[in-house]
Amino acid sequence: MNRLELTGLTTRPAQVWGGVRLVPLVREAPVEGLRLHREVYEGLGAGLVELGPRNHYVSYIPHGLVADWSSGGESGVPGSGRQSAAYGTQLGGGQDAPHTVRLPRPAHHRMAKRRPGDRLRFLPLHLALEGYLALHFGGPSTAWEEWSRRALRDGLSPRAEDAYLGWSVRGLGEALRIFEIHPDQCGVMVYVSDALAAAFVVPHPEDYRLLHASLVEDLYGELVHQYALYGAPVAEFGARLGDGAHIRTLADLRAAARGQERAWEEAHEALFALELLDSSYGFDRVYRMGSFTLWRFLPPFVRDGSGQHIGETITDHKGRVAYLKTFRLSDAQIRRGYLLHVLAGADWELSRAAEVLGSSREELVRRIRAAGFSELLKGNV
User: Fold this and answer.
1) CA 186/CA 188 separation, integer angstroms
2) Is 122 helix (H, G, I), strand (E, B) or coil?
3) Element spanning 110, H or E
């Protein structure tokens, strides 16, 4: 498995608000045996994430997701594959969309924690971001003379990356509030100035209705924030039926409209979403949940000018995506990932790494300092 497969998901015409373009994703049938519920935390969203007995980090954590992989009949109870109350997190509201119940926020969060029954609570996007932050985290494996004592003792600790809250991405909140949700909608691709900002997919339409508004609480990269702030409005989707001479009946009109929908879907996959779907990824398995598997993934960090994304996904036994959430890296973050890959590949020997990069040792040292890793180097290097 090295690619994302959105089999079973089809696109609907884009919804445009200023510089934000939302592309709805619908399923012909929900994914059987998996549901997602939201667990909301009190406070301002700051929390401590524990990675292990001695490893942790502080970040913005507005909510967690609870994956329920029960399966069975249509009884409407846990294990039925229908809507069921997640453990301590959710109540039904009659004909209305489910409501969330706020829980006391614990002092610490674990990245992924098993819950009673067939349930797993995990922190959305944090799986992906922690995977990026941990990239070659151990630092030099050989005590080359250029590296500081701290680099050899602590590696890249501490390491920090910046992100922006969805509320600060201009136009995103209004777009999510204004546009209607399709009856079978199970996901959305968010574009800002027609650059892919994030992809979000869930297994069931009811899950999406509950989690749709949570997109403004997600984290977005620096590039997305800048595009929203300075970018111009994008062109709206418009169906063009020619001069209409061939349209005689409602059936002709319906067929022409369907043709335009197919044309949009093909254009979207070939142009807009190509950077996400046509890229290869390194997948790291986080947790196996019956016939489903929770993964996080990293891009190849190639320097070809295309957008690159980190993310997390839940796939079924055939590799089809049931859940997906992505984060677009900034150019600086891609450069840092690429530089760390080169250094690790050269066993952190500066001369070998500089040869791989086709530059001098002095230029490589400059790039290491410019990337924010100057504390790894001795002061006289």
Assistant:
1) 7
2) strand
3) strand 108-110
Nearest to 209 by CA among 357, 38, 82: 38
Q: Residue 67: in which H helix or E strand, if any?
A: strand 63-68
Q: Rounded to 5, what percent of the chain is helix, strand, coil?
A: 30, 30, 45
**Tokens 């301002």 — which residue?**
44
The one-letter code for the residue type at 282 is G
Yes or no: say if 43 and 105 are a contact pair by the CB < 8 Å rule.
Answer: yes
Please list the ranges in the chain whose pLDDT falls under 70: 42-48, 50-54, 56-57, 71-109, 239-245
pTM: 0.84
Residues 280-318 have pLDDT tens digits of 999 999 999 999 999 999 999 988 878 899 999 999 988
Q: Are 88 and 103 in contact (CB under 8 A)?
A: yes
Long-range (24+ apart) CB contacts under 8 A made by 178-186 are 178/17, 179/15, 179/17, 179/22, 181/24, 181/208, 181/209, 181/212, 182/12, 182/24, 182/26, 184/26, 184/27, 184/28, 185/12, 185/24, 185/25, 185/26, 186/9, 186/25, 186/26, 186/27, 186/30
**How many other CB atoms are found less than 10 A from the CB of residue 40?**
16
CA atoms of 315 and 294, how far apart (whole Å):
7
For tokens 């619908």, the residue is: 26
Helix or strand or coil: residue 49? Answer: strand
Task: Specify the long-range contacts of residues 40-43, CB closer than 8 Å, at least 24 apart.
Answer: 40/89, 40/100, 40/101, 40/102, 40/103, 41/102, 41/103, 41/105, 42/102, 42/103, 42/104, 42/105, 43/105
User: Residue 370's CB: how many other CB atoms inside 10 A?
Assistant: 13
The tokens for 270 are: 């070939």
CA–CA dist 38, 30 (Å, integer): 18
